[in-house]
Design brief:
Elements: H1 3-85, H2 89-116, H3 119-162, H4 170-183, H5 189-205, H6 210-222, H7 226-231, H8 239-256
Helix pairs in contact: 1-2, 1-3, 1-8, 2-3, 3-6, 3-8, 4-5, 4-6, 5-6
C-alpha cells in the first residue's frame, strides 16, 4: 500500500472513530436522560402517594371528629329522654339545651365533611344530620307533652272530686283515650284517625293550647308499644338513629379501605 492510500485509510478510520464516539456519546446521553426521567417520575409518584396518604389521614380525622360530636349528642339526648321518663322537667329542660349545643357541634363538624368529601360521605352525613334534627324535634314535643299531661291530670283530679259520675267526666275520658293511644303500635294506620278524634276532644276541654295538644297527641301516638320495644331491642326508640350512624361508619370504612 502506497503512502497516499495509507493516508486516506487513516483519515477514514479517524472519521469513523469520531462518528462512533459521537454515537456512543448520544446513546449515553439518551440513557442518562431516561434515567433522569425515571427518577423524576419516581419522585412524582412518591409525592402522589404521600399526598393521597395525607388526604386519607385528613379525611379520617374529619370523620372521627364528626362521629364524636354525633355520639355526644346521642348520649345527651338519652339523658333528656331519661329525665322525661322520670318527669323531671327542670333537668330535662337543662339537658335539652345541652343537646342543642351538641347539635351545633355536630353541624360544625359536618361542614368539614362537606368540604373534604367524598360525596358518598356527604350524603350519609346529611342523613345523620336529619336524624339529629328529628330527635331534637321529638324531645321538644315530648317535653311539651309531659307539661300538657300534667295540666290534664291536675284537672282530672279536680274533676274526680267535684263530679260524682264517671259519665260526666270528659277529662277522665280523655286520659283513658290517651292511655289507649299509647298502647297502639306507632305504625298502626288506625292510630292516626284515633289521634285526630282525640285531639278534637282535648280542644273541646279548653285546657291546652293547640300546639300543646298537638305535641301531646303526637308523643303518645309515637311512643313504642311493648311489641315494638321488643322488636327494636336493644336500640328501642333509637333504632333509626343507630341505623343511619351505622351507614355512615360503613361508608367511611369502605372509602378508607379503597373499595369505593
Amino acid at each position: 500500500m502506497d503512502q497516499g492510500a495509507a493516508a486516506v485509510l487513516a483519515a477514514l478510520i479517524a472519521v469513523a472513530g469520531v462518528a462512533l464516539g459521537l454515537f456512543g456519546a448520544r446513546w449515553q446521553a439518551r440513557g442518562m436522560q431516561e434515567q433522569a426521567n425515571a427518577a423524576i417520575e419516581a419522585v412524582r409518584a412518591q409525592g402522589r402517594d404521600q399526598n393521597a396518604q395525607w388526604r386519607r389521614t385528613v379525611r379520617r380525622d374529619v370523620w372521627v371528629e364528626y362521629l364524636g360530636a354525633v355520639d355526644e349528642f346521642r348520649l345527651t339526648a338519652g339523658v333528656v329522654a331519661g329525665h322525661l321518663a322520670d318527669e323531671n322537667l327542670p333537668e330535662a329542660e337543662r339537658e335539652l339545651e345541652v343537646a342543642h349545643s351538641r347539635y351545633v357541634d355536630a353541624t360544625d363538624a359536618y361542614r368539614k365533611i362537606e368540604l373534604e368529601g367524598p360525596e358518598q360521605l356527604v350524603t350519609k352525613g346529611y342523613a345523620l344530620q336529619g336524624a339529629i334534627v328529628w330527635t331534637i324535634f321529638e324531645l321538644e314535643q315530648a317535653l311539651t307533652a309531659v307539661r300538657a299531661m300534667g295540666v290534664l291530670e291536675g284537672a282530672g283530679q279536680f274533676e274526680q272530686r267535684e263530679v260524682p259520675s264517671d259519665e260526666n267526666r270528659p277529662i277522665a275520658a280523655v286520659l283513658r283515650s290517651l292511655r289507649e293511644l299509647r298502647g297502639m303500635d306507632s305504625d298502626d294506620p288506625g292510630s292516626t284517625e284515633y289521634g285526630q278524634r282525640l285531639s278534637l276532644q282535648i280542644h273541646a276541654l279548653d285546657l291546652l293550647a293547640a300546639s300543646d295538644t298537638t305535641a301531646l297527641v303526637y308523643t303518645y301516638a309515637h311512643q313504642l308499644s311493648l311489641s315494638e320495644a321488643v322488636e327494636r331491642f336493644p336500640h328501642g326508640r333509637w333504632r333509626r338513629f343507630h341505623e343511619v350512624r351505622t351507614d355512615f361508619v360503613q361508608a367511611a370504612r369502605s372509602h378508607l379501605d379503597g373499595s369505593t
